[in-house]
Structure prediction request, 420 residues.
Amino acid sequence: MFWGIAILIICIVMGLPIYVGLLGAGLYILLIVQQIPIDMVITGLYDGVAKFTLTAVPFFLLAGSFMEKSSFADRLVKSFTPWLVKVRGGIPIAAILANELFGAMSGSAPAAAGTIGRVMFPVVSKSNSEKFALGMFASAGALAIVMPPSINMILFATATNASIGALFLAGVVPAIIIGVCLCSYIWFVSKPAGQDVKFDLKYAAKMTLKGLPVLILPVIVLGGIYKGAFTPTEAGAVSAVYAFLLPFLFYKELKPPVIKECIKDTTKLTGQIFILIAASTVFSQALAMAQVPEMLKQALNGLSPLMFLMLLNVILIIVGCFFDPTSAVLVLAPVVAPVAASLGIDLLHLGIVFTVNLAIGMFTPPFGLNLYVIQSIFKRRLEDIARAVPPFFVVFIIALIIITYFPQLYLWLPKMSMVQ
Prediction:
């Protein structure tokens, strides 16, 4: 067992792809230590990705790619920004709402940070400051991981046999809680709207009407799941088709070269994720064979659920600083879930805690992906972006505490639905 973990750490230190370390460590434990037949290991690799629910991943990735290459974000922002011009901090609050809704359509934090950031960075920098805008867009993009449909929720559900639909529904309220906390902070630190700013009801209604075809996509996806019209996997297909047809047929924005690029990017990213899923499945099987979950149960036997969740938050925030959310979910969720179950913690509650923690990891130094997305788009120094993040980090932590210790705020929704 020791040498298996050592192999994983050595691979990470050497800068190798994490799936190489996971596969190497898993193969060592299974083949050398446990002496499992190699054909069983190969079967495990296949079984890790041969799950119908995982077909939702490329669908949502493709939908996000189509949205990123079209005017979805611009129409989304313009549909409700005019309503907030007289509100204190109205422009950055509009950016938060745009991130929430874009996340509800794509499930991709980098896509949300980059796409909404491109549209709103200049106006937010003008209304507040450039430092404020850098920190806000780097952190607000992480809302896309929490707001369903979330790819990380799909991966957590796959790794722990949780219901994807129930996890989606459980994620709606936490995303709103984080959004409310961010909007409250923005209102507090922003200046009042100027007297020269006028609210135009006719213009606001016109822009909302023009953006209505974009705004109804989250309603279709989440409403369809809630009402049982389609499964979460089918919702991914619906989202991809809608995200293609709307800009292609009605807005005339998606040309053949762009469509080809979207499909190419989605195929590449899907391959990367599925390789990681297969490798993490072997590693998780190795840990299970080595009785690691049982050892953790015994080690944490005297711990209360409250203390366990506190410890888990600390560990996940640290892990999120160094690992991407996909890797962290696939490696840790299968190990932690049995321990949480033994303490009476609901699996959906655990999934939301995982998701919010790893969303925070998207914008924490040194390896938060959103930091590099913002750096590449706006050509600012990484140090400047990292210095702009701390106030928003604190806001996310406050929201995380609420979400962690008051699960009744959001678990009622999946329990009321027919999703099991």
